[in-house]
Amino acid sequence: MKKTLFLLGLTLSLFADKIVVFHAGSLSVPFSEIEKKFEAKYPQFDVIREAAGSRACARKITDLHKKADVMASADYKVIDNLLIPKYAEFNALFATNEMVIAFTPQSKYAEKINQNNWTDILLKPGVKVGHSNPNLDPCGYRSILVTKLAGIYYKKPDFYNKLLGYGDYYSSGEENTKKVIVRPKETDLLGLLEAGAYDYLFIYKSVAEQHGLKYIELPPEISLKSKKYADYYKQVSFKVTGKKPGSFIVKKGAPMVYGITVIKNAPNKKGAELFVSFVLSPEGQTIMKKNGQGVINPPVINGKWTENAK
């Protein structure tokens, strides 16, 4: 019986219309659940998800010209800056998050670190930290913005330079490998943290909770969580690579907002629209909240959103 059901499922998947979804690594867990619920509701579709840093996802579309139906970003501005208007017509703002400092029981000074002393702990000799590549992943440049905000909040103006010291922008390979580990996206760093390759990770709260990590919850002035502190966040900025080689986009501190869109030349436009509608639906929002993310209810949609997708 089980073999029959397996073969039936395999046969259905072979004939199902594929919906290719490029999405931020931090959306992997909730989107896995959304995929299952969506396919149960619409068995004629087969969702194919591909996780990467949000900017890397956009580059696959703009630079590598890979075919995709949907793009979901951990920073809605990635869609605004890299995809609209040539590759997408709208941007649906649907979820929120916040930055934390994650660690394991094996991390150096794990029993002593707290919200008040984490900047001192991270600067201690022998302590290693990890963050994702800011040119590929919003979590990377948000990690840098957090260190800059921490310097202001804790009145430690040299904290960013002492810990990371990249200057105005990051060039791959320039990190102090004795102190810092960098990988393309934040989820690439989880296994290394759990294996003890380094001690502390700048990561989204939802991801830390999904993977059962200990974490330091940061003050709202630092965590990039609250609209209330939008002006405070604007005090810091960092440059990331732009659309053309040698160009840059300035990323200012801002509350964390996720965005999702349908790609203009989507091979499966109808399926893409249905998938995005499901993500934005009450059922989709419930799944996001269950996995540790805040939601924007109702979602804020900027641009042209087709009638048959509503």
Automatic annotation (TrEMBL):
Single annotated GO MF: tungstate binding
A Pfam family annotated for this chain is SBP_bac_11
Any one Gene Ontology BP term: molybdate ion transport
Spell out the Gene3D superfamilies in the cross-references.
Periplasmic binding protein-like II
List the InterPro entries.
Answer: ABC_trnspt_W-bd_WtpA (IPR022498), ModA/WtpA (IPR050682)
NCBIfam families reported in the protein's UniProt record? PRK04168.1 (NF003196), tungstate_WtpA (TIGR03730)
PANTHER family linked to this entry: MOLYBDATE-BINDING PERIPLASMIC PROTEIN, MOLYBDATE_TUNGSTATE-BINDING PROTEIN WTPA
Family designation: Belongs to the bacterial solute-binding protein 1 family. WtpA subfamily.
UniProt name for this protein: Bacterial extracellular solute-binding protein
Q: Which organism is it from?
A: Nautilia profundicola (strain ATCC BAA-1463 / DSM 18972 / AmH)
The organism's taxonomy opens as: Bacteria, Pseudomonadati, Campylobacterota, Epsilonproteobacteria, Nautiliales
